[in-house]
Write a structure and sequence with these properties.
mainly alpha, 11% strand
C-alpha cells in the first residue's frame, strides 16, 4: 500500500516537472511596460552635451558596444519586438547561451539595452533614449 502511494507521488511529480506552466512568449504590453527605462534617464541623455571629451568617450563606448555583428543583430531583434526573453534571443542565434549573455551584458553596460529580471527569467528591451543619444552623437561628428 505504501508502495502504491509512493508510485503515485513520483508519477505526479514527474508530470509537474515536465509540463510547461510558464508561457514561452512574452505577454506583450506588460513585458514592454515593465522593461521601459525610467523617465529621468531619458531627459538626462538628451540634454547632455554632444561635444567635448565626455561626449567623445560616450561615443567611443557606444561604438565599441555595437562593433560586433552579433550585437547589432541583437539590437535589430529587440527593435522589432519590444521586449524579449534571453532564451528567445538564444534560440534565434547560432551561439551558446553564455556568449549571447556576454553580448547582452556589453549592450547593457553602455545603456543601449535594459534588463528586467523576473526570477530566473530575464527579458531585455532597447532603451530608446540611448539610441537617440547615439544618433545625436554621430550627427555631431
Amino acid at each position: 500500500m505504501l508502495t502504491e502511494a509512493l508510485a503515485n507521488v513520483i508519477v505526479n511529480r514527474r508530470l509537474t516537472m515536465t509540463s510547461k506552466t510558464i508561457p514561452d512568449a512574452p505577454t506583450g504590453d506588460s513585458e514592454t511596460a515593465v522593461c521601459c527605462p525610467p523617465e529621468g534617464q531619458t531627459v538626462e541623455l538628451l540634454t547632455a552635451p554632444v561635444e567635448g571629451p565626455a561626449a567623445d568617450d560616450e561615443l567611443a563606448a557606444f561604438a565599441k558596444a555595437i562593433a560586433h555583428p552579433t550585437r547589432v543583430r541583437i539590437l535589430r531583434m529587440l527593435a522589432k519586438r519590444g521586449a524579449r526573453m534571453c532564451s528567445h534571443i538564444v534560440d534565434e542565434l547560432p551561439l551558446a547561451q553564455s556568449t549571447v549573455s556576454e553580448h547582452l551584458r556589453i549592450l547593457r553596460s553602455v545603456g543601449l539595452v535594459q534588463a528586467n529580471e523576473n526570477g530566473p527569467r530575464v527579458s531585455y528591451c532597447i532603451v530608446p533614449s540611448a539610441l537617440k543619444r547615439l544618433k545625436t552623437l554621430l550627427e555631431a561628428v
